[in-house]
Design a protein that fits this description.
Radius of gyration: 26 Å
Structural class: mainly alpha
Shape: globular
Mean pLDDT: 84
CATH class of one domain: Mainly Alpha
Low-confidence stretches: none
Distance between the termini: 6 Å
Helix content: 55-70%
Number of helices: 15
CATH superfamily of one domain: MetI-like
Largest sheet: 2 strands, antiparallel
Strand content: under 5%
Strand order of the largest sheet: 1-4
Number of strands: 4
């Protein structure tokens, strides 16, 4: 097992290196730049000003190692070998520095911006994923046991409907019905007018034993309940979308397990059906779901782009959209690289868990 994990870690590092280079090159080769909006909105901006800004951000240097011939006051200087913007950026990333924001919050560290948004995404995605798994697994098992029953047909129809409907449509319908029509939930955001904080600040205060956000003292419960009121609608939309997929996977996996010989052998021994399902069928039936769960880990950090945008939820997904709209490449690169790392890590995590859950798998 240790040799397998070591080999996979090395492969993962090589893969991450390739992904980071590909992402960096794509983002830096697309048309447009961080100063296009500035140039279009202000006619007094000259090309020399843009050149100075490009020099300040190293955008005038080559992407990869090569010759760099700087130009000062219109005069070309002596050329020299430059390591390239990618290697310079990669060196900083290896030391935990993803650069600074260009346009969203000029001068702020990218990691600081991510830290300010990741709590909201973890709350939204974690809540919806937990609810989806807690509801879908029992329903999927019940549907598999009662295959071709009326309940099975209803569950299958609902699962197909939930997975077929895009989240932007279900989100807008949820706002129209529950927010505008019934006025049960807010239309979006995370904080009501006049509130001194939000649910993430309350959680931070609790985790730091009251040292963080002292202005929230005595108001924690009220603000926390208000935060749950705001997260309920986007959380239910994402839960409904994820629920459909988990039900289908659980049902199909259990149906395959129930046809195996060892299940018939367990019944032939006279074991109670409940014991056969839970002890012999459930553990093997949940093995394929390990992959599905592992692949949801990146989404817990990356966020749901469409849902967060519709409900004005200040998470990672919405920040990625804002960074793309503002041509803030360091923020986009930081989010994408972290997400790529989580995807690679989650696959490695799934392989290791396979060996623990399924005794038939051996990496020796």
């Amino acid at each position: 097992m240790s040799k397998f994990i070591t080999r996979r870690i090395i492969q993962s590092l090589v893969l991450l290196l390739f992904i980071s280079m590909l992402l960096y090159l794509i983002l830096n080769l697309v048309p447009g730049g961080p100063f296009d909006l500035l140039r279009n909105s202000n006619p007094h901006i000259t090309q020399s000003m843009i050149d100075r800004l490009n020099s300040l951000l190293d955008l005038d240097k080559p992407l990869l190692p090569g010759q760099y011939c700087p130009v000062t006051n219109g005069v070309q200087q002596a050329c020299r070998l430059d390591p390239g913007r990618y290697l310079r950026w990669l060196w900083k990333v290896a030391h935990g520095d993803f650069g600074t924001s260009w346009t969203m919050k000029t001068g702020s560290k990218v990691l600081s911006l991510i830290q300010g948004r990741i709590g909201y995404t973890l709350l939204l995605m974690g809540l919806s994923t937990f609810l989806a798994i807690a509801i879908a697994v029992p329903i999927g098992i019940y549907s598999a046991i009662h295959q071709y029953s009326k309940t099975d047909y209803v569950v299958t129809a609902v699962a197909f409907f939930g997975q077929s409907m895009p989240t932007f449509w279900t989100g807008l319908m949820a706002i129209s019905i529950f927010s505008v029509g019934l006025k049960l939930f807010p239309t979006g955001g995370v904080q009501v007018a006049g509130s001194p904080g939000d649910i993430i600040q309350v959680i931070s205060r609790v985790l730091t034993f009251g040292h963080a956000y002292p202005q929230l003292a005595g108001k924690e419960v009220k603000i926390f309940l208000d935060g749950l009121h705001h997260v309920a609608l986007p959380g239910l939309v994402l839960t409904f979308f994820n629920l459909a997929g988990w039900i289908r996977f659980t049902r199909s996996s259990m149906l395959e397990v129930m046809r195996q010989d060892y299940m018939r052998t367990a019944r032939a021994k006279g074991l109670v059906e409940r014991v056969v399902i839970l002890k012999h069928g459930l553990r093997n039936g949940l093995i394929p779901l390990v992959t599905i769960f592992a692949l949801t880990i990146p989404s817990l950090f990356g966020g749901a782009l469409i849902t967060e945008s519709i409900f004005s939820w200040p998470g990672m997904g919405r920040m990625l959209i804002e960074a793309i709209d503002n041509s803030d490449w360091p923020v986009v690169q930081g989010i994408l690289v972290i997400t790529a790392f989580l995807v690679v890590f989650s696959n490695l995590f799934a392989d290791v868990v396979y060996a623990i859950v399924d005794p038939r798998i051996s990496y020796s």
